[in-house]
Amino acid sequence: MTRHDAERKQKILDYIAATLRARGFPPSVREIARAVGLSSPSAVHHHLQVLERDGYLERTKGDGDAALSRAIRLTPTAAIRLGLTSELVPQATTAQSYVLPVVGEIAAGGPIEAYQDTSETLSIPDMLAPGGDAYVLRVRGDSMIDAHIADGDFVLIRPQTTARNGDIVVAQVEENGVTLKTFFKEKDKVRLQPANANYPAMYFDDVRIQGKLIGVIRRLD
């Protein structure tokens, strides 16, 4: 192992520990790549495999697609090397989590075209998505800012086809256009209400509900 590789692996361990401390669950592979200056997820996977082999990490398969990344957990060996407090590693190694796909972007503004891109994943604690029955979308736009949903946030969506008044939902409003808004059924119309006074309400004869918001994840860096 070269000195450069050793320094890179140390940076990866430091970043995983810092992320666990800050938000209670590990970073995604792409977050690690950005944080330590690696150009591709495959390079991160190589370093994670070495760290796992050397006893610093444990990676458990998620319940979803076999191609998804594994959930990352620090071992007591890593805790000793990093000088971590004892409570961090038990939290990271015992808490159930699920690796969920970031399947695309969702408009918090006007509708945008839906698309699938499962190359990025996030590890989500079971308390946010019991059973792992959810998926993640990245928010584009600021129409839901007063509901504390900002441009660039990740939203955790539980798949469902029905909604009650006041639910924040993923709604398909055009042939392939989706938007994130608060749902209201009014007489013969559906109102999709933004949470920003700069945006008007949207009215439709009908919409197709694709899921309900159950959580918001925000990167602080």
- Unreliable stretches covering 5 or more consecutive residues: 62-70, 85-95
Question: Major β-sheet, in short?
Answer: 10 strands, mixed
Query: Number of domains in the coordinates?
Result: 2
What is the CATH architecture annotation of the largest domain?
Ribbon
Q: What's the CATH C level of the largest domain?
A: Mainly Beta
Radius of gyration: 20 Å
CATH topology of the largest domain: Umud Fragment, subunit A
* Overall strand count: 12
Question: What's the pLDDT, averaged over the residues?
Answer: 78
Order of helices and strands: HHHEEHHEEEEEEEEEE
Q: What's the number of helices?
A: 5
Name of the CATH superfamily of the largest domain:
Umud Fragment, subunit A
Which structural class best describes the helix and strand composition? alpha+beta
Strand residue content: 25-35%
- Calculate the terminal CA-CA distance, rounded to whole Å: 30 Å
Shape: elongated
List the helices and strands and how they pair.
Elements: H1 3-23, H2 29-36, H3 41-53, E1 57-60, E2 71-74, H4 76-82, H5 88-94, E3 97-107, E4 112-113, E5 120-125, E6 135-140, E7 154-159, E8 168-172, E9 177-186, E10 189-193, E11 202-204, E12 208-217
Parallel strand pairs: 3-6
Antiparallel strand pairs: 1-2, 3-5, 4-9, 6-7, 7-12, 8-9, 8-12, 9-10, 10-11
